[in-house]
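Appendix B, Record 12. Input sequence as logged:
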Amino acid sequence: MQETSVQELPLITNDAVVLGILVLILALVFSTSSSSRPFFRKFYAVVPSVLLCYLIPSLLNSFGVISGEQSGLYQMASRYLLPASLVLFTISLDLKEIWKLRQMAGLMFITGTVGIMIGGPLAVLLVSSFAPELVGGEGPYAVWRGLSTIAGSWIGGGANQLAMFEVFKPAPNLFSAVIAVDVIVANIWMAVLLYGAGNSERVDRFFRADSTAVNELKERIEEHRLSIMRIPNMADTMAVVGVGLGITGVSHFLSDLIAPWVALHAPYLDKFSLTSGFFWLVVLATTFGMLLSFTKVRNLEGVGATRIGSVFLYILVATIGMQMDITAIVSQPGLFLVGFIWITVHMLLLLLVGKLVKAPFFFLAVGSQANVGGAASAPIVAAAFHPALAPVGVLLAILGYALGTYGGYLSTLMMQAVAP
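Logged structural output:
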């Protein structure tokens, strides 16, 4: 057994080395994407830079060079750098303009939720028609019990997933297998959305979408940025980092008090993810950032607040990428088939509604990722369109937390009904 565990170790186990590799990858991608050389200009016209920031670490993980499972970098980035980036993105918010996006953003988010709710039962029904053994099983080994955790995760997040686990009690081995499906399929889907974000104008032309509201928001942010822009000195840069990480510290402090208090005094609120420390961390960081947007702190945008926030966010992108092991698809092909059919139903419903209402691809992508990826990755997809739009992803992901347990529960009952 000892020998097997040694063989499973990645080539590089030191997180300091892994972090260095990830940051070098980011530096290489952004330096080449801004190059004026014809080859790179043609290459990045086809492959969005943000997609490479995500895929290259996933390939290193898949081929055993580094290990997302054994590394603590994702935990660090999601708990420290994500909330700091949310603060730095939201301090330059124009809430009036964000509010204008509410109807289309809400419609596409709900569409995505419905797509996940019906996608699971349809996938089980379809697979059972030609391979019932893949979605059958009895007792705790019934596949629908394991799939319940994916429904909770893809509508809400980790807390909703664990809620489904506690309600339906799938066997540990089955739960491990569906966790792999959850992570791999969700990460591949995120890669598709990031690719689409890099080619959003083409998609919008296909939808004949009116992206006026989104473009107006981006223009207003850019105008504000240009009006206050100046060359930053050391004090400016330290102020930006201090606000980002300082508010992150305050958010951690408060979330460590609030989440246990809610769990103790109102445990029934667990179904809304209100007992999750990460939920409160994201909510508090975003809220503090919004409040600061009404103060002079807003002017830190002129000395690079969004740029530094983007650095934090792209490190998170790389650490999320290194969670994906594409070789895992081979080990559980049947369950992965269910997962891919499931996400395809989600995608087709979004495309249908998006086409009917002529929704800009931004709303489709962020509405989808707010469901499937949650608060850790929805702002990444939103920021791929423009850093100023990251808070939209956060706000929708928070809504997903509220709906995740209910939506996941209803979806599971439908999967149970159609399972062989």
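The mean pLDDT is 87.
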